[in-house]
Design a protein that fits this description.
Number of helices: 7
Number of strands: 4
Oligomer: single chain
Strand content: 5-15%
CATH superfamily of one domain: Glutaredoxin
Order of helices and strands: HHEHHEHHEEH
Strand order of the largest sheet: 2-1-3-4
Shape: elongated
CATH class of one domain: Alpha Beta
Structural class: alpha+beta
Distance between the termini: 70 Å
Radius of gyration: 19 Å
Helix content: 40-55%
Largest sheet: 4 strands, mixed
C-alpha cells in the first residue's frame, strides 16, 4: 500500500515537472523591433514595456495579450521587453534600459515580473501599470490614452 502511494506521488511530481518544463520553454522572451538610440531619445511616441521572466506565471498568462499589443501597436508606440529570467538576461535588460534612457524607470520599478507598463513618450513617467489582465481592452484603453494625450504647450512633437 505504501509503495503504491510513493509511486503515485513520484508520478505526480514527474508529471508536474514535465508540465512546468513545457510551460517554461513555451514562455520564451518576446522579440520586439529594435529601437535606435536616436528614436529612444526623441520625445513623442509612448513606451509600452513588458516586464518578463520565462518562469513567471503572469507572463505565461498574458502571452497572448502581448502578442496582440505587438500586432496592434507596433508602429505607433515603442515596444520594449525587459527580461529578468536569470542574471544574464537581467544584466542585458539593465544595459538596454541605460541605452534607451529608461534607467530611472528600471531603478524605480524594475525586477517586477508580469506587468505591462505604459510610459509617457516625453517624460517616461508611468501612465498605466497593468498586471495579469487577459482583457485586451484594458491595455488598449491605456495605450490609446497615452497616444491621445496632448503634448505640453511649446513641446516639440515626434512625427514618427
Amino acid at each position: 500500500m505504501l509503495r503504491k502511494a510513493v509511486i503515485s506521488a513520484v508520478s505526480v511530481i514527474v508529471l508536474l515537472a514535465a508540465l512546468g518544463s513545457v510551460l517554461y520553454v513555451g514562455n520564451a522572451t518576446p522579440a520586439v523591433r529594435p529601437i535606435s538610440t536616436a528614436e529612444a531619445a526623441a520625445a513623442g511616441r509612448p513606451w509600452v514595456v513588458k516586464m518578463h521572466a520565462q518562469w513567471c506565471p503572469v507572463c505565461m498568462m498574458t502571452k497572448g495579450v502581448w502578442s496582440r499589443i505587438e500586432q496592434t501597436y507596433d508602429e505607433q508606440v515603442r515596444l520594449v521587453v525587459f527580461d529578468f529570467t536569470n542574471r544574464a538576461t537581467t544584466a542585458a535588460s539593465r544595459a538596454e534600459a541605460e541605452r534607451l534612457g529608461l534607467t530611472k524607470f528600471l531603478d524605480e520599478h524594475g525586477y517586477a515580473t508580469g506587468p505591462i507598463v505604459v510610459l509617457d513618450g516625453r517624460t517616461k513617467e508611468v501612465l498605466a501599470w497593468i498586471n495579469g489582465s487577459r482583457d485586451f481592452g484594458e491595455y488598449d484603453a491605456a495605450i490609446d490614452a497615452a497616444l491621445n494625450a496632448p503634448a505640453p504647450r511649446g513641446a516639440p512633437t515626434d512625427p514618427g
